[in-house]
Amino acid sequence: MITEGMRRQFHRDGFLIIPNALEMGDVEILRREADCLINYLISENINIMTDYGGIIGITITIRECADQVPEAPDSVLHILFEKVPAMVNNFLPEESEDYPTCLFNEQYIVKTPDSASISSFAWHQDSQYMDTSAKETFPVVSCWIALDNVNLKNGTLLVEPFPRPKDAKSGGYVELPAQFQERETYVQYHKSVASHYEIPPADKTAAILMAQNRLPLQPPSPPSAATNTAAGSLSKDPKEWVCESQVPVLVEVPAGSIVFLSGWVRHCSMGNSSSKFRRAFMPQYSAGKVVTATGGMVSLAVPCSEYDERERERVDSRIRMQAEGLDFGDDVDMED
Ligand SMILES: [Fe+2]
């Protein structure tokens, strides 16, 4: 159950952690797929860390080893196109016919055992990997799903909440809406508030220490009747905003928890110094099909609402094949 307070918290901080968001059955499905991909790469003498940087992009690998993925693809698709979108829609502008919620990208992020020296990620914002025009037009939310219990030792996330803008006159924190209806306002606010991040220290040790000693994030207090928009009490020029830096948050959560991350929130991760794999699955969703300034499609751009249609086609084709006495074991095509 995602409340209005949680939605406002997402825009205030640029991220939101929902512990145990997925049932263990779904976690097992994703784990099996991750393991299958890991085993396939190992069998091909590919070093997941040094060759792939720990990131297994589904579009590349799933085709290569589709016949080796043991999981019925339908169940993964159900998680990917129904369960997670039902949650992430709370953090995107309201869907419309022109701008449906789309799967933008998906990847497993794997840290191999005892790989601390090569498996950490530096501070970054996910939007920095996008085309400039696209990232300033389309809200994108990353859904980082822990497939193992994650902690400091096995390489979890460290997230720096958005700096908090204050009202120039009253000095009070600016109130935010539960949802930005327009993509432009959404991106403008997230980008502007993120421009107030101070340069992070290259050494994460101090940030980790601060995170370990901070109090848990609290949801924002209920909005007053007077204001219900972010822009209402902020200067038009974001450079004039007075913002308060926030202490980073260490994500230590059980498997099945999801961290919803705005494309503009700054985060990094630690290396894995444990003796086991640390697995995460990270689909990303966009408000509309992401295109560049010249109209070129970026990444996957698959509307989640088309899942039902694809599902029907798959079932129909299976029924046909069964009726014709054909083996449908090869009917594993993520692209149809
Ligand atoms: Fe990231």
Could you give a short description of this structure?
Its cofactor is Fe cation. With 336 residues, the chain is of the alpha+beta class.
Structural features, described:
With 336 residues, the protein is α+β, with helices and mostly antiparallel strands. It has a single domain, classed as Jelly Rolls (Sandwich). It contains 8 helices and 13 strands. The strands form 3 sheets. Strands 1, 2, 3, 5, 10, 12 and 13 form a 7-stranded antiparallel sheet that branches. It has a 4-stranded antiparallel sheet with strand order 4-11-6-9, covered by helices on one side. The two termini are 32 Å apart. Mean pLDDT is 86; it is low at 326-336. Fe (ii) ion (FE2) binds at residues 124, 126, 267. InterPro entries: Phytyl_CoA_dOase-like. It comes from Linnemannia gamsii. Belongs to the PhyH family.
**What's the name of the CATH homologous superfamily?**
q2cbj1_9rhob like domain
Percent in strands: 15-25%
Q: Report the uncertain regions.
A: 326-336
Largest sheet data: 7 strands, antiparallel
Distance between the termini: 32 Å
Which CATH top level class fits? Answer: Mainly Beta
Query: Ligands bound here?
Result: fe (ii) ion
CATH topology: Jelly Rolls
From the structure provided, what is the oligomeric state, counting identical versus distinct chains?
single chain
Specify the helix fraction band.
Answer: 25-40%
- Class from secondary-structure proportions: alpha+beta
Gross morphology is globular
